[in-house]
Design goal:
Length: about 190
């Protein structure tokens, strides 16, 4: 009798777990919920900082644990036709690894369906926004301009390094030529 009760209790718990699992699957995140996830996952935070807020963000249940946490965050960038998932994994029982779990393209049909779910994830007035420049949120044009400025600075640094390498090569050639001259003169004296 006790065994039968234990089996029924186990089945009931299993069914309750199965019934509640899909409730979290595909739950759209608000801007505030996304920021909470970004505070927990550094890889996600850095990605959004570099690429701006997505059009849609959602939390999806992960059944394949361990080492994964119980959910992942999926970002959808509709203009770029991009879906990218972020998750956290545990080492020694601590969720210390933040990573991109997958990245895949979206079809036009998927973009159309997701477009109906798109809403502003920007912070309300007075709140912190992750894609910031001089205290204001950056739009696509500002992000592109900012990226172009960073690329120009990088090109200038590469040019300066190339000039320094060229000068070092010229000095090396001068030293080698002097050594060859000294070596030739020493052989003539013998």
């Amino acid at each position: 009798m006790r065994r039968g009760v234990a089996v029924w209790m186990g089945c009931a718990l299993l069914l309750c777990g199965a019934a509640t699992a899909p409730a979290r699957d595909g739950q759209d995140l608000t801007g505030e919920e996304l920021r909470v996830e970004m505070d927990r996952n550094v890889t996600l935070k850095n990605y959004v900082r570099r690429n701006g807020l997505p059009d849609v963000a959602e939390s999806n249940f992960l059944a394949d644990r361990p080492p994964w946490e119980d959910h992942e965050v999926t970002l959808y960038y509709l203009e770029r036709h991009l879906e990218i998932g972020f998750a956290r994994a545990s080492i020694l029982g601590r969720p210390d690894i933040d990573l991109i779990r997958y990245e895949r393209p979206l079809t036009d049909e998927q973009v159309a369906v997701l477009g109906r779910r798109a809403h502003s994830l920007a912070a309300p007035a007075g709140r912190h926004h992750m894609a910031m420049a001089d205290g204001h949120p950056m739009g696509p044009a500002e992000r592109a301009e900012h990226a172009a400025g960073r690329a120009e600075e990088a090109a200038n640094r590469v040019e300066a390094a190339a000039t320094a390498a060229e000068r070092a090569a010229e000095r090396t050639e001068a030293i080698v030529a002097k050594m060859e001259t000294m070596s030739a003169s020493a052989s003539r004296k013998k």
